[in-house]
Amino acid sequence: MNILEKIAAHKRVEVAESKEEVPLEALELLPHFKRKCISLKERLQQFSTGIIAEFKRRSPSHPEINLEAEVEKIALGYAKAGAAGISVLTDEEFFGGSLDDLMQAREAVNLPLLRKDFIIDEYQIYEAKAAGADVILLIAAILNRNQIARFAKTAKKLGLEVLLEVHNEEELERSLMPNLDMIGVNNRNLKTFEIDLENSKNLAEKIPAEYVKISESGISETVAIKELQKSGFQGFLIGGNFMATNDPGKSAAEFIKELKG
Ligand SMILES: O=P(O)(O)OC[C@@H](O)[C@@H](O)c1c[nH]c2ccccc12
C-alpha cells in the first residue's frame, strides 16, 4: 500500500466511528451549519496575490513541521499578512490536525477556509460545513468519477465550494465536470512525495478556463509564483514554507510583501 492508500483506508475506519458518535442529523444542528459561506473562488479572481496559507503541524513527508503550532494565533497572522484564504489540515492520524482546529480558525478570522482532508464519504462534507469550512478538497487520486460527481453535488447543495486536486493528466481528464469551482495541481506526488513545479506549468493549458487554477505544494519563492501566474494560476497553496518558521504569520507577511513589491 502506498501512503495515499494507507490514509484512505484509515479514513474509512475513522468515518465509520464518527458516524456512530455524531449522526448526520446532529451535524445539521450545529451553529455553523446555516452560515453563508465566503467564496474563495471570487477572492482568488479579485485578489492580486492569491496566497492560500496552510495550517499544518506535521505530514507524512515532514513529521515535525511545527508540532506546537496554535491555530488561532497563526490564522490571525495569516489574515493580517493578507492571505486570500486559509487551508486547515483536519486529518489527525497523519497530519496532527482536527475539526477543532478548523472551528478555532473559523472563530478567529473572516477569510474563506478550506477543509484539507481526505474526503471519501459524504458525511465528511457535512462535517466540513458544520465546522465552519467554505471549501472542501476532493483528491482525484483517491476518488472515481462517480464519487467526485456525487461529493461535488453534495458540497454545492450545502453552499460549499469545491477544489478538485489532480496530479497528472489522466486524473484531470477523467475528473472534469460541472460543480467544481477550482482545480488544484499538486506539485507533490502524494505517492512518492517528489516535488516538481513543472507539473503545474505542464497541466495548466489542459485546464479549461472556467475553473480557477491553483498550484499546490513546494512553493517557497515569490519568483516561482510570478512564473506560475504566467501559466494562468490565480491561487497558490503554501504550507511548509510558512509553518516551518517560528512565526508563520510573519513569514507569510514577508512573503506577500515581497510578492507585491
Ligand atoms: O507544505 P507545502 O509543500 O507548501 O504544501 C501545502 C499543500 O499543498 C499540501 O499540504 C497538500 C496538497 N494537497 C494535499 C492533500 C492532502 C494533504 C496535504 C496536501
Shape: globular
* Low-pLDDT stretches: none
Q: Which ions and ligands are bound to the chains?
A: indole-3-glycerol phosphate
Structural class: alpha/beta
Range of strand content: 5-15%
Helical residue percent band: 40-55%
CATH topology: TIM Barrel
Radius of gyration from the alpha-carbon trace, in angstroms: 17 Å
For CATH, the homologous superfamily is named as Aldolase class I
Q: Helices and strands, in N-to-C order? A: HHHEHEHEHEHEHEHEHEHH
Whole-number mean pLDDT? 97
CATH architecture: Alpha-Beta Barrel
What strand line-up does the widest sheet have? 1-2-3-4-5-6-7-8
CATH class descriptor name: Alpha Beta
Distance separating the two termini: 45 Å
Please summarize the sheet with the most strands.
8 strands, parallel, barrel
The total count of strands amounts to 8
Number of helices: 12
Number of domains: 1
Organism: Salinimicrobium catena
InterPro entries: Aldolase_TIM, Indole-3-glycerol_P_synth, Indole-3-glycerol_P_synth_dom, Indole-3-GlycerolPSynthase_CS, RibuloseP-bd_barrel
EC number: 4.1.1.48
Family: Belongs to the TrpC family.
